[in-house]
Design a protein that fits this description.
The structure is a homodimer.
Chain A: H1 15-19, E1 38-39, E2 54-60, E3 79-85, H2 99-102, H3 112-126, E4 134-139, H4 142-153, E5 159-163, H5 168-176, E6 180-184, E7 186-187, E8 190-191, H6 193-201, E9 212-215, H7 229-242, E10 245-249, H8 275-281, H9 286-289, E11 295-300, E12 312-317, H10 318-330, H11 337-380, E13 395-397, E14 405-411, H12 426-439, E15 442-443, E16 445-446, E17 472-478, H13 484-501
Parallel strand pairs in A: 5-6, 5-9, 9-10, 10-11
Antiparallel strand pairs in A: 2-3, 4-12, 7-8, 11-12, 13-14, 14-17, 16-17
Helix pairs in contact in A: 3-11, 4-5, 4-10, 6-7, 11-13, 12-13
Catalytic activity (chains A, B): an aromatic L-alpha-amino acid + 2-oxoglutarate = an aromatic oxo-acid + L-glutamate
Enzyme class (chains A, B): transferase
Family (chains A, B): Belongs to the class-I pyridoxal-phosphate-dependent aminotransferase family.
Chain lengths: ~500, ~500
């Protein structure tokens, strides 16, 4: 069966993207490797003058029998050691990227060996069987990838959509580029498709139609929510109906721990899944549903290998990625060569199967962390306290099924000063409790920091506005950043802070 | 003597920079290292899960007695070998950046050990004795650094200034952001201050005043010209008078080979300069003249260590750099951790003196390359042919004193088809000769690719327009990209192409 080609969405591009031409210098760079041409064309320094004869590294070895975080003692059975030489001629294994290439100019899309691995990985995980001309493009991580999306699609004054609470840096990036971010109502399962549909069907026709939906479907930041496959399908249909691009920002995609079970019902022996079970158990991505090339998927090694790799990739149609490539030639050029060769070597040494072992191991670590966090939250937080009049719980913890974050929802109206000193302003409770937690020696982050507060010009109808539970505030915590014992202690302090602040 | 503080130039900022607030998440990141706080605030993965136990590298060892390009055979006297461990506790030498830190989030300004080296280096080279609050900020190279300058200062419709021929990617970056680049006349010694003054004094007052001058003072791309210290001083005074920021893009700064001497007068034994002689012999930078903080200097390792390091830095006032930092938190975050730790380790192992040895060695290599190129150009190009009527030379080669590029200037009117088939259009000669050189197996790049062609709205007075020699075209070649013997062969082919094309 031959697959259809992606559609042309270039009419959605920003003025910048529409006006940009590829650098004329790039039209002759292919002659650099032409044996018949002596290349006096570009300022490429000779690799003789790169001051690294070789670099090497030691990494853990699949299938990581003692867990992915186990210390390595250099023994052969636990570790792989590899050397990346300067010259191509000294390369020991096919697929290695010599320093003379990755430390030179060129290959703005990414080094071929890295891209090859990522293409295969993308096929393994997302199938990519709906249109033919998809590809991957290396980025410096999802912060940079999102910044590029804004540059490619948005002019000042444009509108985009995002979850009603979303990653503050992503929102700020849009705002500072003069792009308005309109909030879409969400619950603990993410964007509510019917609300999205209502907003779009009733969009103020004098305001520019939204060009993009920015979403973090898995382990959403900050709410910890995850979109179901069904909701994704509905949202994708809305993208077609209302003609916008979906940007799925998926740094936490492989931290899918599944449903939380309380200690009583939880199985004490976790069975390691087969690769097939693991892959089949993952949430369906937007990009895997996409038969038109209107989804851009931002993938990143930040949460899976390390943030400082500053390496990620975009999956999408070649038509769109070419425009990103032209932008990158004038902004980042390419991710750093050391990062590309080291990450590529690590992944290619592991192989696709070894990388799945790593991801399975990582998920295991985060499952233990998530379970420990939720156990401790249920133990230390006053989850059984309810308001005497309304019967509303003081604090709710919905265990996340994915990601790094848990959220504690608080009914601000139960604060003793709510009706008096705080003038019924939930924000004042948020501020007071934030100060309290720091005083008690733990840090969780106010949900207010993540509010999507944009409004279009002219404004949308009132009914489109997010209606949160009145007086509800929330705080974002993470089980990622500290070891288990410290986390338990931190959550205990959180409980103390909550009791003190609410006079229990 | 206490130095004055830099001035506040924030009124020149773009709307974007003016409206940007630091991310609220960054207001609590300092608590990450507070021993009294259990940090459940941010999604920072544990470094246990970074799959690199250590990385290591082999670099040449100062003072590089056999030249900086000599192959290393791993012998102790020629090489240094270093290991960068994951954990801080395993660090062997002060100043090393452990992987657990450089592969984590944070330090958007750059890793402290790298910044410390760069600050000291900046003092050694540029003195920085005119104002107190200067600093350095790590970048992903000068392409990214310049992109950030545009974002920090320019709105769509703003005007900036640049050399009449300049690096095409830098020009395109401005154009695609909707920024107009007005050309400043230049000769083989760079920007002509009197012309710049005339343009600014007669600036069409209805057009926004230029906010920036973008200049490549040393070994300019594409013309190979270098600005004298005197001209820099004059231009800096004009920046004060007309209140604009100077951005000096200096990737070629350390390739200052000095005046070309013909083989007859050239000394066969080159004396290696002392560090003091070397530093004192360097051109004065704009940043070294700056007593107000209105100069931003873009420095890069691309030409000095390797382009793929994707690492550079900006020197400027803290006031300006803080605004860059806030931008970078939403775009690049920070240069890749592997690059920062490896480059920092290399430099700190060499020390400031060792790095000067490297730079002296690099200059030597480029001096030999430049001399060989100019010798060959004088030998193989028809430099003695003159027009019978006008007595204008057909081809002129002005030996560069710095950088990677040579330029051959051609009198297009001497082309046999100039008055007939080509309709007296020098561009047609340029195109024909470009095709001819490729046909003859060598690549040099048309000067037309680098033209600064911007015009303000409303336009500037006619007298401000660049007047080039009529019918002059030029081609940019480099002696950087190929070994000496290949370069000589390439230049020979260039001579053949020129003779054939011009019917000699």
């Amino acid at each position: 069966m031959t697959l259809p080609e992606s559609k042309d969405f270039s009419y959605l591009f920003s003025d910048e993207a529409k006006s940009r031409k590829p650098s004329p210098l790039k039209t002759c760079i292919h002659l650099f490797n032409d044996p018949n041409i002596i290349f006096l064309g570009g300022g490429l320094p000779l690799s003789n003058y790169f001051p690294w004869k070789e670099i090497s590294a030691i990494s853990p070895k699949p299938p990581f029998p003692n867990g992915i975080g186990a210390p390595i003692k250099n023994a052969d059975e636990e570790a792989i050691e590899y050397i990346i030489p300067k010259a191509k001629a000294e390369i020991r294994e096919e697929g290695d990227i010599p320093l003379e290439r990755c430390l030179q100019y060129g290959f703005s899309q990414g080094q071929p060996e890295l891209l090859k691995f990522l293409r295969k990985h993308t096929e393994v995980i997302h199938k990519m069987d709906k249109y033919s001309d998809w590809d991957v493009l290396a980025t410096i991580g999802n912060t940079g990838g999102w910044e590029s999306c804004l540059r490619v699609f948005c002019n000042r004054g444009d509108n985009i959509l995002a979850e009603a609470h979303s990653f503050s840096s992503s929102l700020s990036a849009a705002l500072s580029q003069g792009v308005n971010v309109f909030p879409i109502p969400m619950d603990e399962f993410g964007i509510i498709p019917s609300k999205l549909e209502f907003i779009l069907d009733n969009w103020n026709e004098k305001a520019p139609k939204p060009k993009l939906l920015y979403t973090i479907p898995t382990g959403q930041n900050p709410t910890g929510s995850s979109l179901s496959d069904e909701r994704k399908f509905e949202i994708y249909q809305l993208a077609k109906k209302h003609d916008f691009i979906i940007v799925e920002d998926e740094p936490y995609y492989f931290l899918q721990m599944g449903k939380y079970e309380s200690p009583e019902t939880r199985s004490s022996v976790e069975k390691k899944p087969t690769h097939e079970e693991f892959v089949n158990g993952l949430a369906k991505s937007f990009v895997s549903l996409d038969d038109e090339g209107r989804v851009l998927r931002l993938d990143s090694f930040s949460k899976v290998l390390a943030p400082g790799t500053r390496l990620g990739w975009i999956v999408g149609s070649k038509k769109l990625l070419t425009t990103f490539l032209y932008l990158h030639e004038m902004t980042i050029q390419a991710p750093a060569g050391f990062t590309q060769t080291l990450v590529s070597k690590t992944l290619n040494s592991w192989g696709q199967d070894g990388y799945l072992d790593w991801l399975i191991g990582l998920r295991h670590e985060y499952t233990v962390k998530r379970d420990t966090a939720i156990d401790a939250l249920r133990q230390h937080l006053p989850v059984d306290i309810r308001d005497k009049t309304t019967n509303e719980p003081l604090v709710v913890v919905n265990p996340p099924v994915a990601g790094m974050f848990f959220v504690i929802n608080i009914d601000a109206s139960q604060h003793p000063k709510f009706n008096t000193e705080f003038n019924k302003d939930p924000k004042k409770v948020e501020k007071a409790f934030y100060e309290k937690v720091i005083q008690k020696g733990v840090l969780v982050v106010p949900g207010g920091w993540f509010e999507t507060t944009g409004e279009t010009v002219p404004p949308q109808p009132k009914e489109s506005k997010v209606v949160l539970k009145p007086n509800e505030i929330f705080f974002r915590g993470t089980y990622a950043a500290v070891p288990l014992d410290k986390m338990k202690e931190g959550i205990k302090r959180l409980g103390v802070a909550l009791r003190e602040e609410f006079g229990l």
